[in-house]
Design goal:
It is built from 7 helices and 8 strands. It is an alpha+beta fold. The radius of gyration is 19 Å and the shape is globular.
Length: about 260
C-alpha cells in the first residue's frame, strides 16, 4: 500500500536513477562512455504558422540547452517536405514540423534543460504535441567525408511494425536482414542509420504526446533526389521496398535540413 502513495514525480525519479545506473554499468563493462540518445518530434499548434514556429522553437531550444545541456550534443532539424508514401504502405497520420537529435551523459539532463522557465513557457505556447523518444542508433552505411552533412538530401522515416509481428522478431529482422538488404544497394545512399526506439520519456510542461507508438526511425542521406530515385529503381532497391512492405505496418516519410548543430 505504501508504494501506491508515491507521487508521479517520485516514480519518475526512480526511473531516472535506474536508467542512469544501467548506463554507468555499461561504462564499466565496455570501458567507453555510454550516452543517452534522444529524438524529439515536434508538431506546432494550429495558432501559428510554420515559419514562426521554427523561429520561436529554435530560440526556445537554444535557451534551454545553453542552460542545462553542458557536454551534450544537440542537432536541430526542420522538416522541408513530405515525399509520397511507399506504395502499399499505410501512412502514419501525423504531421511533423521539426525534430531534435540529442545526446546526454545522463537522461535527467533533458528534464533539467527544460526547467528554464521562459524557454518552457515559449515551448508550451508553440508546440501542439511532441514525443521524446530514447533510441539506440545503428549506423548501416557512412560514405560521407568525415561525417560531413552539408549538401545531401536527407530523409527520415518513422516506422511501425506489422501488427502481426511481435516487437523483438521485428527488430531482429529490421536491424539485421533489412540492414543487409540496404547495404546491398550499390550507389544510392551516402549515409543510412537505424534508430531503434527504446522508450518514450515524459514531455516537459505536460505538453500533449503525439502518441505514435513507434518502433524506430530510419535516416537516409542521398546526393540528390535523382540518385534516390535511381537507387529505388534497382533490383536491390526494390528488394528493400518489398521487405518494408513485409515487415512494416505504417510509416511516415519526410525530408529535412539540419538547422543548427553543436
Amino acid at each position: 500500500m505504501r508504494l501506491n502513495l508515491l507521487s508521479h514525480a517520485c516514480w519518475r525519479r526512480l526511473y531516472l536513477i535506474k536508467t542512469n545506473n544501467m548506463l554507468r554499468l555499461a561504462n564499466r563493462i565496455t570501458g567507453t562512455p555510454a550516452m543517452v540518445d534522444l529524438i524529439v518530434l515536434l508538431k506546432r499548434t494550429d495558432a501559428i504558422g510554420r515559419d514562426e514556429f521554427l523561429r520561436r522553437w529554435a530560440d526556445a531550444s537554444a535557451a534551454a540547452y545553453k542552460e542545462g545541456a553542458d557536454g551534450a550534443g544537440v542537432i536541430q532539424c526542420r522538416v522541408t517536405a513530405e515525399p509520397p508514401p511507399l506504395p502499399g504502405m499505410p501512412t502514419i497520420g501525423v504531421s511533423i514540423d521539426a525534430f531534435e537529435k540529442l545526446s546526454f551523459a545522463e537522461v535527467e539532463q533533458f528534464a533539467n534543460c527544460w526547467r528554464h522557465a521562459e524557454a518552457l513557457a515559449e515551448l508550451r505556447s508553440i508546440a501542439g504535441a511532441m514525443s521524446v523518444l530514447s533510441v539506440r542508433s545503428h549506423v548501416v552505411r557512412d560514405d560521407t567525408k568525415a561525417g560531413a552533412s552539408a549538401g545531401f538530401l536527407k530523409r527520415m522515416v518513422l516506422v511501425k511494425r506489422n501488427p502481426k509481428l511481435a516487437r523483438q522478431p521485428y527488430l531482429e529482422h529490421w536491424l539485421n536482414t533489412h540492414a543487409r538488404l540496404a547495404r546491398q544497394v550499390r550507389g544510392g545512399s551516402r549515409f543510412y542509420i537505424q534508430h531503434e526506439v527504446l522508450s518514450e520519456l515524459e514531455n516537459p510542461g505536460e505538453i500533449a504526446s503525439l502518441a505514435l507508438s513507434l518502433d524506430g526511425f530510419s535516416e537516409t542521406w542521398y546526393d540528390d533526389e535523382a540518385e534516390m530515385s535511381r537507387a529505388a529503381a534497382t533490383a536491390e532497391g526494390q528488394a528493400v521496398a518489398r521487405d518494408n512492405l513485409a515487415i512494416g505496418g505504417e510509416s511516415k516519410r519526410f525530408f529535412f535540413e539540419i538547422s543548427n548543430q553543436d
